[in-house]
Amino acid sequence: MIETLDALSGLMRQHGAVRIYAKKLSPNDNSKNQVYLGGDFTALNILPYGEVSTDSSEKAGSVRDRAKSPVRFYWIDGGGKFLAPNAQLILYPDYPEIRMSGFLLGCRNAPAEIMRVRDEGRVLFFGVTADGEVLGHAAAAGSPLARVLYALSGLGQVGVFLEIPLAKEDVGSKQRLLDVLTAIYAKHWISSQKLGRDGIARAYSARNGGGYTLEAELGISPNGYSEPDYLGWEIKQYAVTNFDQYRPTSPVTLMTPEPTGGYYREQGVEAFLRKYGYADKLGKAGRINFGGIYASDRTYHHETGLRLGLVGFDEKTSLITDLDGGIALIDREGEFAALWKYTGIIEHWKRKHAQAAYVPSLFRSPPPEYRYGPRVHLCEETDLNLFLNAISKGVVYYDPAIKLEGDGSSSMAIKRRSQFRIRHDKLEQMYHRNEVVELDL
Predict the structure, then answer these.
(1) MvaI/BcnI restriction endonuclease domain: from which residue to which, for each copy (predicted)?
(2) CA 330, CA 308: separation in Å to the nearest integer?
(3) How far apart are CA 409 and CA 398, in angstroms?
(4) What are the pLDDT digits (tens) for 16-34?
């Protein structure tokens, strides 16, 4: 039996955990009723998950749409690591809430004696690995491990999850991040670089090296399943003109998903550009562009004839009412030129983190160098519904840069760039908690 948090953290680390969380279980958190993971979508930024599908469930005579996604979930204990092949997240967008189910089915070594009962005082621990696995360990009510967890105070909290230190001497992910950013700030000018998948930093000469250089200083290698991640924090640098006023030189790009429906998807990007695009404004022959700013204000863009809207979303309650809907570019005939289905947005959302740090930077050349400032904007507990609500209010907008280039022959080149952006001074609307920290040398 695992009796201490140190022993559990050590076991989690042995199996690859880079972050550990705990959920205090209520009587309704069991295999029959599923495990409640929150009354919003915060859990989507905590637990990695797979492809999203939809179905309907019937309860008390009513039918509810829900989204489901598999989780690579393993139970661990002193005897080893055991796959729970049917574990999944279930999203109820009309509540909203997220639950986990199937965590016992098909796993002989699962802690059924703990997860089938309604005892108050049980604890479910989650370990998240760098490659997207979720490790689970359940502590019975009254067990030494559960008593230790309930006796602790001062743990960081994200949604319904408590953040557990990886080691006894761990001061917490936020303070460790601030300590490292302080050390980077103290270096002043740093040569532009990019960390390779082999862990080696190499010189980088392109103008977009601000983020890569910061990631290299933090030791962040390219990650296939999420955004740049340091101790569970998404790291975002942004260019400023100086460290006195911290005026950003460009908006923040929140997401860059490709449409999953509409004319764009059904007929292809070239057909979309030929129907809704426009000739290059500088007169470059053979180029068709699709750009502009699209906000949810019910106005049609003067060059493309499209507007941005939300389909199947109740702006009064800020809830998804139809999972088959989504974010849409709509023409004057009411047809969808492009559609980002909610299921696709939910799947793309796993690249976000519940916690993000926005770090200002300066650039100079030659040689290309970056300096990172002392004012760090820490944002915690983002939520998919906050994102959709910000779109409905016009705070988040669509800012594409899609183009087709050709020489009149069969050779055509298409560039895709769909991005949803927000002004830096509006970022607070994307998170439940915000804090600006001044680093002190």
Answers:
(1) 181-431
(2) 6
(3) 32
(4) 999 999 999 999 999 898 9
* Phi and psi based region of residue 159 (left: phi greater than 0; alpha: psi -120 to 50; beta: remaining): left
pLDDT at 169: 59
Cα distance from N-terminal residue to C-terminal residue, the chain: 45
| Residues 418, 308: Cα–Cα separation, whole Å | 13
Q: Where are the alpha helices (DSSP H) in 195-304?
A: 209-218, 262-267, 269-276
Q: How far apart are CA 113 and CA 101, in angstroms?
A: 16
- Grouping H, G, I as helix, E, B as strand and the rest as coil, residue 196 is coil
Q: What domains are defined for the chain? A: 5-164 (2.40.330.30), 225-441 (no CATH)
Q: Find the DSSP H helices in 170-328.
A: 173-186, 209-218, 262-267, 269-276
- Classify 188 as helix, strand or coil: coil
Task: Round to whole Å and give the CA distance between 325 and 339.
Answer: 8
Q: What is the pLDDT of residues 311-360, one digit of tens each?
A: 999 999 989 999 999 999 999 999 999 999 999 999 888 888 888 999 99
Residue 226, both tokens: 């999420």
Q: CA angle 96-100-105, nearest 5°?
A: 150
Q: For residues 185 and 372, is the Cβ–Cβ distance under 8 A?
A: yes
CA distance 3 to 42: 29
Type of residue at 35: V
At 110, is the secondary structure helix, strand, or coil? coil
What pLDDT score does 263 carry? 98
* Strands 134-139, 123-129: pairing kind: antiparallel
Considering the entire predicted model, what is its pTM? 0.86
Query: Strand locations in 50-156, DSSP E?
Result: 53-59, 62-70, 73-77, 80-83, 88-92, 97-101, 123-129, 134-139
Token output for 212: 């890569």
Share of the chain above pLDDT 70, in %: 94
* Helices 342-349 and 384-392, packing angle to 10 deg: 130
What CA–CA distance (Å, rounded) separates 212 from 218?
10
Q: Which helix (H) or strand (E) holds 362?
A: strand 355-364
